[in-house]
Amino acid sequence: MSEKFDVVIIGAGAAGLICAAEAGKRGRKVLVLDHAKKPGRKILISGGGRCNFTNYDVSANNYLCRNPHFVKSALSQYTNWDFIAMVSKYGIEFEERDHGQLFCVDSAKQIVNMLLEECQQAKVQLRYQQDVQQIEQSEQGFTLMANANAIECQSLVIATGGLSMPKLGATPFGYKVAEQFGLPIIPTSAGLVPFTLHKQEKEDFEALSGIAIPAEITAQDGTVFKEALLFTHRGLSGPAVLQISSFWKAGQKVTINLIPEADVDELLTIAREQHPNQSLKNTLARVLPKRLVEVMVERKELVDKPLKQFNDKQLKQITEYLENWTIAPNGTEGYRTAEVTLGGVDTDHLSSKTMQCKNINGLFFIGEVMDVTGWLGGYNFQWCWSSGFVAGQHA
Ligand SMILES: Cc1cc2nc3c(=O)[nH]c(=O)nc-3n(C[C@H](O)[C@H](O)[C@H](O)COP(=O)(O)OP(=O)(O)OC[C@H]3O[C@@H](n4cnc5c(N)ncnc54)[C@H](O)[C@@H]3O)c2cc1C
User: Fold this and answer.
1) pTM summary value
2) Residues 376, 295 share a domain
3) What's the pLDDT at 106?
4) In terms of residue numbers, what domain contains 149?
5) Residue ID of nearest Cα to ligand 1 atom 52
6) Average pLDDT in the 126-146 region?
7) Are residues 250 and 354 in the same domain?
8) Angstrom distance (rounded) from CA 320 to CA 351
9) Which of 332, 339, 345 to mutate to test the pocket of ligand 1 (most atoms within 8 A of CB)?
10) Count of domains observed in the chain
11) Strand ranges (E), 11-129
12) What is the 339 CA–ligand 1 centroid distance (Å)?
């Protein structure tokens, strides 16, 4: 005998939980299955344990998707303000950080507890440590096996996320289900991820590990982010690098303005007038970490001598170099540390209004498993809330 549900959701992460609560509120009998021991593990570790749950400023421009218009409907049906209203209703204190990012003041756990409370009120059943197998289409909808128990449902929602952080339970399950039902997958890769450097550069910059500077970073496709850049013992990280990594392709270079806040040419020209005997190194150390300037001199990218020995053209060349410091990353740290997965289930085969497959009634994909990737800044969770909400109205 199989158990019967109206809706089965696979994945008790951000997208799965909000979808479950919404479907349950409509009176649907909902079951959530997850192979992990507990729900929302990525929410718990996100934002350094404080969960950057959304952003004050959300639009389709903050997302990468092969169809750039796809996200618009869901983002307008369930907005950042809708989620902020729920967070406020639960009395969860939050704060705004740079670029409109909203974080819990206390703990990301409050977001998980809020979603679980919503599920409980909507009488959603949650089961953990479930091994889900054998999904098949049936006359009523779908049948599947979970820990060797047969389950039937009218609607099946896949909310199993992407490949990033396998240690937290990420699997390619969602892509396999998509393939089984004939939906194409846009090739996946790690996004919002630190860069690794080639051997020589890694050795040269290793000593700078832990140093952060404000920077403006540009990808080969022209995308620009102005954020902090961090040197690490493996390469480059920090928000600037995480953001641009989603726009970078193997073999490409990135260009970095190392002093975006100052007019470097003016600074050097005035310094040469006022302190002609001051070394270039000591002059630049006023606007850059001294150790970074030293490494550039050691790498013979800059020549250190008194400012009076540089002519105008040479000062301009130094400015040009510092404003367009170019580096070709060796690669990225990959799924092990990536915050998200680029690519995923092709949105051309899904309804942008409901997240339901266009050709398979009752099958839905929501959250990160889809070919929708947000920028750093709360946009990925907002996509989970928006896509999960709309699916919850129709599943
Ligand atoms: C370190 C880190 C920090 C982040 N910080 C932020 C942030 O502050 N703000 C932001 O917007 N985004 C952040 N992100 C991205 C965000 O966490 C994800 O985009 C989001 O969690 C995706 O939600 P999801 O529900 O689609 O998938 P997930 O949260 O990955 O949930 C998928 C669920 O499916 C389950 N599952 C997987 N495979 C199976 C299977 N075979 N059988 C059964 N269950 C399965 C998993 O156990 C999991 O519970 C961060 C990511 C990481 C890794």
Assistant:
1) 0.97
2) no
3) 98
4) 3-190+337-393
5) 339
6) 96
7) no
8) 48
9) 339
10) 2
11) 30-33, 52-55, 63-64, 94-97, 101-104, 125-127
12) 9
